[in-house]
Amino acid sequence: MSVKVALVTGAAAGIGAAISRRLARDGIAIGVLDILLDDATKVANEIVAAGGKAIPLKASITDRRQVTAAVNKLRQAFGPITILVNNAGITGFVAFEELTEAQWDRMFEVNVKGTFIVTQVVLPDMKAASWGRIVNISSSSAQSGAVLMAHYSASKGAIIALTKTLARELGPLGITCNNIPPRFVMNTVMSESSVTDSHRQAMIESGPIRRQGEPEDIAGACAWLVSDEAGYVTGQTIGVNGGRYI
Known about the structure:
By secondary structure, the protein is of the alpha/beta class. It has one domain (about 5-185, about 215-230): Rossmann fold, CATH 3.40.50.720. About 50% of the residues lie in helices and about 15% in strands. The chain has nine helices and six strands; from the N terminus they run βαβαβαβαβααβααα. The chain has helices at about 15-25, 35-50, 65-80, 100-130, 140-145, 150-170, 190, 195-205, 215-225; strands at about 5-10, 30-35, 55-60, 85, 130-135, 175-180. The chain has a six-stranded parallel sheet with strand order 3-2-1-4-5-6, with helices on both faces. Strand 2, helix 2 (about 35-50) and strand 3 (about 55-60) form a beta-alpha-beta unit. Helix 1 (about 15-25) packs parallel to helix 2, helix 3 (about 65-80) packs parallel to helix 4 (about 100-130) and helix 4 (about 100-130) packs parallel to helix 6 (about 150-170). It is globular.
């Protein structure tokens, strides 16, 4: 039986790295894609050292030529790509009235257009196999709204809508598409740069499960969604948020 191949974007650290390591433990060959090649290489080396299969890939998800080159490299290394985890993204905090068009455009360029580009580039392999799994990492801010994050929450809302549309359009081809909206996962680049200790504690205490989210929490849900067991699950929003948003 051939090894399944997954492309994970934004995989050099945090949630993306955790997903890469988890899927590799499940026997999936991983393309660890990020704009930070040195960090992606570290993650890929960790996977290989643990007995898995992985290669590092560098690309900006907003550049179709770079994405195509990276995807071709992954195909050459391990074969057709039938699992895609769209995790790469950016965040930001700014009052709505102070939000600039440039900030808005950049957020949508990375979070929405980037996801669109990567998915289009990978899709032919899934169609050829009549089997595929797409998991988009959205955000609970898209479900509840978030103060000072109009551009971010709107972009992630677009990802949830895109997920539902792809589920309908690609389901007849044997391809599922689901999304995971984390709440606020610690130990990630975005969270560590934007939260104070007091804010962290307040967020922990505001949910039914009184601990912070970890990248591995998201990875566990993702591993199930890309498995054969989840073949009848598509178009779904699988919240991994400690019950903060119900």
